[in-house]
Design goal:
Chains: A alpha+beta (155), B alpha+beta (381), C alpha/beta (252)
Strand order of the largest sheet of chain A: 1-8-3-6
CATH topology of chain A: Jelly Rolls
Helix content of chain B: 25-40%
Number of helices of chain B: 13
Structural class of chain B: alpha+beta
Number of domains of chain A: 1
CATH architecture of chain A: Sandwich
Oligomer: heterotrimer
Shape of chain A: globular
Strand order of the largest sheet of chain B: 3-2-8-9-10-11-1-12
Radius of gyration of chain B: 22 Å
Order of helices and strands of chain A: HHEEEEEEEEHH
CATH class of chain A: Mainly Beta
Number of helices of chain A: 4
Distance between the termini of chain A: 60 Å
Order of helices and strands of chain B: EHEEEEHEEEHHEHEEHEHHHHEEEEHHH
Radius of gyration of chain A: 17 Å
Number of strands of chain A: 8
Chain lengths: 155, 381, 252
């Protein structure tokens, strides 16, 4: 296996993935360094990249007039950035900024989607992993909706 | 079974007066059954004439009535509505008093009241078992309750081996009666076989023996002792209820989501009567009682019931919001988790909760219903 | 939220273990159970952090420097830090749940050589609502503690992590031999225990501090029962293997 495949094996998102699938994925991947402060993705833009973070932090949020970016989640090494690339209409839902210098493996989403269509087993594997991330983000959001640390209303 | 220390004596009817007098001479306030407001009540007495002569009772779910007996029995009834617990664990106890001076400093004062010296006369085996249960709760704790411990230390117990179980009794199931086995100073058996009642009296402690030695009584004959034994043997066959205690804590523990809890919740009024009548229920609230002078306030412990909605309040809400969960708490505690906490059952089989439930919920019936469909799940959350 | 630092009027010293609680009495309102948030290894005043959520806590929060209150205690089981010595610690606090854990963190710092790696994860609603902010900053400055603060809702100027505490747990050091100490709202503790178990920590090594109605504090008033557990005396700190089956029964 090549070194990129080794890096992916070490990443939490790809844990346990078949070597054959990893080999295919590396064909769409490259290592990138994103300088801190860079805007990585913008709400509404075409979702054509997917990042597996290896170092650094990324803030996910929305920009409101007069308030700047409101962060809703912070991503760290071991997290992945972006899931909208897998589902039509392939547009980003939020903004993402690099908080530090971010080291990541970046995947060309068009390339990935092509590989997934060509190999449904790979597509299902990847979709399951992305769905698990969505599930985690959903329960995290739900927990925060509960506002557990706020003062409970007498009931 | 090892016999109690000392002799067994036989007393004629007025011999009981001598017992009361002897106990009173030792400085005890005698508390004994008497008739009040159409019910048996445990009240201070000074003479045997205040005991309920020729009175019996009828007890059934949601029913309690006194009735006339056709004899002169003084102990011819079963458990009274209100148990002895109010004397050892009063319904309200001032824990401490605090005084605030003009600088705002607080001075805490102990509120040690003189300790009453009670002699309980006529404690049935189930009720004696309940006192022994409270000993574990209040006196066996790492922080013994001072009020209970002091009153209990001074207590003199004259048990009565029970010959008159009611329709709600199940002490044989709970292995607490009808014969008192331990924990008494004196125990009497009322013999009604020869017209006027006679009493066989035995000592269960050195203090009891000492008192017994002062009585002018004949040693009990073998016939007396046989007759006394027969009283409780017959009573044991006349239990109004039964509780299957095999595996009971575990059986309840594995049925916490049983649909029967919904069924009983539909009947239960969550009034808490069962907890007030129960001789072992010990829950309390600590409440603040401010004096009108504005400079003192007291902390008062009052009987509480796990059936009240606020009982399990934590900031933000009540843990046990449904009647289902509150009845389940009461019953599984009484019959189940009590064992883990105090290494005993919390139920002694006196049947008060059955008689005094306004809708006649019967703990033995509820336990049997769950057991008969052991493992069934369902009902509301 | 107010932190009360108390000294006995007669100069006596209260000995306690981290995780224990006291019953604080506000004249003439009543008592409430408040966990101790000071370092048990130090001689200083006994700190209690009180959130203004009821009549007694409101009265306590209104006390002024020099006022007198009543105290009974200490009660309860404590975190059992001695039995965790020699290994790693994972400390997870949510909201005011940091108060009883502050006691532990302070003790760990003063006896740092007794423990392996120490991870501290603190969840708070907003950056402004972070309890013991200055102290947390001090902890973050130490190279022998790994401190993670995460907020549910970012506010302008917050450059730290945003997300619920459980999202931090996958990336901390969490050896299966570690002991986890968790305090926060019950829902937060349930999810945290789950996430820690996903990291390979057995339920018996996860300790949580439970909240129930407490009045007598000595297992006699009955209010705090959770199954057979008297939370005031058997707890408030209990291992997750004991608590989990009890919390699985609604309204137990």
């Amino acid at each position: 296996m090549n070194s990129l495949a080794d890096e992916l094996t070490a990443h939490r998102f790809f844990a346990g993935m078949a070597d054959a699938h990893l080999e295919v994925l590396t064909g769409c991947a490259r290592n990138v360094v994103i300088p801190g402060g860079t805007s990585i993705i913008r709400e509404g833009a075409e979702a054509n990249v997917f990042w597996a973070l290896r170092a650094g932090r990324v803030a996910l949020g929305v920009t409101a007039p007069g308030r700047g970016m409101l962060t809703i989640d912070t991503l760290h090494a071991g997290d992945v950035l972006g899931w909208a690339w897998l589902f039509p209409p392939y547009r980003w839902h939020f903004d993402a900024d690099a908080l530090d210098d971010v080291h990541a493996v970046a995947f060309d989403a068009l390339c990935l989607r092509g590989k997934c269509s060509a190999d449904p087993a790979l597509g299902f594997d990847l979709a399951q992993r992305v769905a698990a991330i969505l599930g985690d983000r959903l329960s995290s959001a739900r927990m925060r909706i509960l506002d557990l640390y706020g003062s409970p209303q007498p009931g | 079974m090892a016999g109690p220390p000392g002799a067994t004596l036989s007393l004629a009817g007025d011999g009981l007066e001598a017992v009361i007098n002897a106990v009173r001479e030792k400085g005890y306030t005698v508390i004994a059954p008497t008739v009040r407001d159409g019910a048996i009540a445990y009240e201070p007495v000074t003479s045997v004439t205040q005991l309920p002569r020729g009175i019996g009772d009828e007890q059934a779910p949601a029913r309690y009535r006194l009735r006339d007996r056709d004899d002169d029995a003084l102990f011819g009834f079963a458990a009274a509505p209100s148990s002895w617990k109010r004397y050892l664990y009063p319904p309200a106890t001032t824990l401490w008093r605090v005084r605030r001076d003009e600088q705002g400093s607080l001075a805490f004062e102990e509120t040690a009241a003189p300790v009453p010296r009670y002699a309980f006369l006529g404690v049935r085996a189930c009720e004696l078992a309940a006192i022994l249960v409270h000993d574990r709760v209040f006196a066996g704790s790492t922080h013994p309750d001072p009020t209970y411990a002091a009153r209990r230390r001074e207590l003199f117990i004259i048990a009565v081996h029970c010959g008159s179980p009611s329709g709600v009794c199940f002490c044989t199931s709970m292995n607490t009666g009808p014969r008192a086995r331990e924990g008494f100073d004196l125990a009497i058996t009322e013999l009604l076989d020869a017209g006027a009642p006679r009493y066989v009296i035995e000592a269960g402690s050195p203090a009891g023996q000492e008192l017994l030695d002062t009585l002018d009584a004949e040693p009990a004959t073998k016939a007396d002792l046989d007759a006394a034994r027969a009283v409780t043997d017959v009573a044991a066959e006349r239990m109004g209820r039964q509780m299957d205690t095999r595996d009971l804590p575990q059986m309840l523990q594995r049925n916490l989501e049983h649909p029967r809890w919904d069924d009983v919740a539909a009947r239960c009024l969550s009034c808490g009567n069962c907890t007030m009548a129960c001789p072992t229920c010990f829950c309390s609230d600590d409440v603040e009682s401010q004096a009108p002078d504005g400079a003192t306030s007291s902390r008062v412990r009052e009987w509480a019931s796990c059936f009240s909605r606020d009982f399990s309040y934590i900031h933000g809400g009540t843990v046990r919001q449904t009647v289902r969960s509150r009845y389940r708490q009461w019953m599984t505690h009484k019959l189940g988790t009590w064992w883990d906490q105090f290494d005993s059952s919390g139920c002694v089989g006196c049947g008060r909760c059955i008689a005094w439930c306004p809708v006649g919920i019967d703990i033995t019936e509820e336990a049997a219903a769950i057991r008969s469909a052991d493992g069934l799940r369902g009902g509301s959350a | 939220m107010v932190t009360l630092e108390l000294e006995a009027t007669d100069g006596s010293r209260l000995r306690y273990a981290a995780g224990q609680f006291n019953m604080l009495y506000a004249y003439p309102v009543g008592e409430v159970a408040i966990s101790i948030s000071a370092n048990p290894a130090e001689d200083g005043p006994i700190a209690h952090t009180v959130r203004n959520v009821g009549t007694v806590s409101r009265a306590l929060c209104g006390l002024q420097l020099g006022d007198t209150l009543g105290l009974r205690g200490p009660f309860g089981s404590g975190w059992g830090l001695d039995s965790a010595a020699g290994g790693d610690l994972v400390i997870v606090a949510g909201g005011i749940g940091l108060a009883p854990l502050r006691s532990v963190i302070a003790q760990v710092i003063s006896q740092r050589e007794r423990f392996g790696a120490v991870e501290v994860v603190i969840g708070t609603r907003t950056p402004e609502e972070l309890a013991f902010r200055e102290q947390v900053e001090m902890w973050r400055g130490r190279d022998d503690l790994s401190v993670h603060v995460t907020v549910d809702r970012a506010t302008p100027g917050w450059h730290g992590t945003v997300g619920v505490v459980t999202t931090v747990l996958p990336r901390i050091r969490c050896d299966p031999g570690a002991i986890a100490l968790v305090c926060g709202p019950e829902v937060m503790m349930r999810f945290t225990a789950l996430a820690l178990q996903e990291r390979g920590l057995p339920a018996s090594r996860i300790r949580v501090s439970m909240e129930r109605n407490m009045q007598c504090a000595v297992a006699q008033c009955g209010h705090c029962q959770l199954g057979s557990v008297f939370v005031c005396a058997d707890g408030p700190v209990l291992t997750w293997d004991r608590v989990e089956p009890l919390l699985a029964v609604r309204q137990l």
